[in-house]
Design a protein that fits this description.
Elements: E1 2-8, H1 11-23, E2 29-32, E3 43-47, H2 51-59, E4 65-74, E5 77-82
Antiparallel strand pairs: 1-3, 1-4, 2-3, 4-5
């Protein structure tokens, strides 16, 4: 299973991004930022990988944007890759 998390340094911006994405009909949730990312406010936006093609450009313009991370569940655990 793959998904993307969008990391910001502000909880407020994370919530604004969540509202933006869900208003466009994209399934998303607010999750704890994985410790391995080692930056951010502690909350991130989780959404399907395909949604990045639709709203990614707008999301990266948000204040305090840190980055997009692809999360893949593997037999050895969770693998994060910065996109």
């Amino acid at each position: 299973m793959q998904f993307v998390i969008v990391v910001y340094r502000s909880r407020n911006v994370t919530m604004q991004a969540y509202n933006f994405v869900t208003r466009r009909g994209i399934t998303a949730s607010v999750v704890s930022t994985p410790r391995s990312v080692n930056v951010g406010c502690g909350l991130s936006l989780k959404m399907p990988r395909q949604a990045l093609d639709v709203v990614g450009e707008t999301l990266e313009k948000g204040e305090t944007f840190v980055g997009f991370f692809l999360v893949q569940n593997t037999a050895r655990g969770m693998l994060l890759t910065m996109l």
